């Protein structure tokens, strides 16, 4: 009987041990399943993080490119503004030069007109003087002719008296 009890006890211990082992194996399987699931989740997270990081890097690169483009555009704009200011200065200088040229041309034209007027006056005076001189010469010639005639008539009369 004692032996029977011992056998029963041993059987119970074996059964308990077996149940414990089965329970442990089942727990281990569940743990492994959870571990696999967690590993899958972790891998998925890693992939998503990689995608996000790549996307972020792409966005940052685009942002850098955009900033660089903005900076280049700004520099171009500033250069264009500078060129425009220089062109406006040149235009103003040319306008000033043109105005100065116009004033100088006006002065020259007025001076030329004045000289031409003086020349006309001088020519007119010369013509008038020449006319007067010709008139005087004609008068002189007439007077000389008259005097010659008087002298001739005087000589004739003197000859008649003699």
Written overview of the protein:
This protein is mainly α. Helices cover 99% and strands 0% of the residues. The protein is built from 1 helix and no strands. It has one helix spanning 2-161. The longest helix has 160 residues, at 2-161. It is rod-shaped and about 230 Å long.
Comma- or semicolon-separated keywords:
162 residues; mainly alpha
Secondary-structure element series? H
Mean pLDDT, to the nearest integer, reads: 93
Distance between the termini: 232 Å
Number of helix segments?
Answer: 1
Structural class: mainly alpha
Low-confidence regions: none
Number of strands: 0
Proportion of helical residues: over 70%
Q: How big is the Rg?
A: 68 Å
- Strand content of the residues, in percent? under 5%
Largest sheet: none
Shape annotation = rod-shaped
Give a concise summary:
Helix content is 99%, strand content 0%. With 162 residues, the chain is mainly alpha-helical.
Q: Topology of this protein?
A:
Elements: H1 2-161
């Amino acid at each position: 009987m004692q032996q029977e009890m011992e056998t029963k006890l041993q059987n119970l211990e074996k059964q308990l041990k077996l149940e414990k082992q089965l329970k442990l194996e089942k727990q281990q399987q569940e743990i492994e399943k959870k571990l696999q699931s967690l590993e899958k989740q972790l891998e998925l997270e890693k992939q998503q993080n990689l995608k996000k990081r790549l996307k972020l890097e792409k966005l940052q690169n685009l942002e850098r490119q955009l900033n660089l483009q903005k900076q280049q555009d700004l520099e171009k704009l500033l250069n264009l503004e500078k060129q425009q200011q220089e062109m406006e200065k040149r235009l103003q200088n040319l306008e000033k030069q043109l105005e100065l040229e116009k004033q100088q041309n006006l002065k020259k034209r007025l001076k030329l007109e004045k000289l031409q007027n003086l020349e006309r006056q001088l020519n007119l005076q010369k013509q008038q003087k020449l006319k007067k001189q010709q008139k005087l010469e004609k008068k002189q010639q007439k007077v000389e002719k008259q005097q010659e005639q008087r002298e001739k008539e005087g000589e004739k009369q003197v000859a008649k008296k003699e």
